[in-house]
């Protein structure tokens, strides 16, 4: 996903009848809810980057829990190339993924990265050769699909809260979710299978 249509942006530059700023901002807030949903939904999400990921398209990938990238794919923040500050939570998520100094560098200097470079920078979890991409993605998604879905949801809630909560508030939630995990059928089956040395 290469993000916004820059040709369309240029075509609209000549228009004189623009909606008020607060209406434009409200529209942007509405569409960027996608990032919130990806980040907070109680299911793990994987961004499968096997082509160009730029601008808003890359921001959506950063909103996911995990990012798998083909080694020959490209990513770039791209916003400064068209004098835009960024949307879909790109700076927020990237700061948490690679740290604020690296995130600022990637936004101010949007040099395209291939998969190997993105993995080395910590922007993606894994980069694999193109011919292994589909197989690796299938392995990851199968693991998540066959795993303890409620527990993965609880884990995701812990990670989301850890971004903003105090340690005390975090530990309160962690204790509650651990208690709820003990009560799931997934835990019962997984613990039994572990003791019985089976899947």
Give a written overview of the molecule.
With 199 residues, the protein is mainly α. 59% of the residues lie in helices and 10% in strands. It contains eleven helices and six strands. The protein has helices at 6-12, 21-31, 33-40, 55-63, 90-98, 100-108, 115-121, 130-146, 149-162, 167-182, 185-195; strands spanning 46-49, 52-54, 66-70, 74-76, 113-114, 126-128. The protein has a three-stranded parallel beta sheet with strand order 1-3-6. The protein has a three-stranded mixed beta sheet with strand order 2-4-5. The longest helix is centred in the last third of the chain and has 17 residues, at 130-146. The radius of gyration is 20 Å and the shape is globular. It starts with 5 loop residues before the first helix and ends with a helix.
Brief summary of the model shown:
By secondary structure, the chain is mostly helical. Helix content is 59%, strand content 10%.
The beta-strand count equals: 6
Order of helices and strands: HHHEEHEEHHEHEHHHH
Q: Whole-number radius of gyration? A: 20 Å
Q: What percent of residues are in strands?
A: 5-15%
Spatial order of the strands forming the largest sheet: 1-3-6
Q: Outline, from the CA principal axes?
A: globular
Number of helices: 11
Helix/strand-derived class?
Answer: mainly alpha
Largest sheet, if any?
Answer: 3 strands, parallel
Helix fraction by DSSP (H/I, runs of at least 4)? 55-70%
Average pLDDT, rounded to a whole number, is 94
Low-confidence stretches: none
Intertermini distance: 37 Å
